[in-house]
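Exam revision sheet. Question 4 asks you to relate a sequence to its structure. Input first:
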Amino acid sequence: QVQLVESGGGLVQAGGSLRLSCAASGHTFSGYAMGWFRPAPGKERESVAAITWTSGKTSYADSAKGRFTISRDNAKNTVYLQMNNLKPEDTAAYYCAADKRPWRTVLTGISTADFGSWGQGTQVTVSS
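Answer key, C-alpha cells:
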C-alpha cells in the first residue's frame, strides 16, 4: 500500500502563494490518479484538484479554478499543488490521496470515495 506524506503548508497572507507537495513511498504511484482534498461543511472532505496518472487530465473545484494548479512528477513519486492568490477561505488542512483503481484515464464522475491511502495532511492558514 502506498504511503503519502504531505508538506509545504504554512501561514501566508491573502494574495500569497504556497506549493504543496505529496511524496509517495512503499509502492509506486505511477498508474494511479492522485488528488488533493480539504474538509468542507457537511462533508468529510471535498476534492480540490485531481490529476490522472499520465497528467493528461486534471480537474478542479470551482473555488480552485484559475488559482490552483495540480501537477505530478512520476519519476519522483510526487504530486504538487501550486496555490496562488490565496484567500482566507482556503484555510484548511490539505490532504493528498491516491485513486483506489489504477489506470484511470478520465476524471469525469470521480468522487472522494474513489480515493484512499490518505496522507496525514498539511495545514494551510491564510490571514486577511
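Marking note for examiners. Residues 4 and 83 are 19 Å apart (CA to CA).
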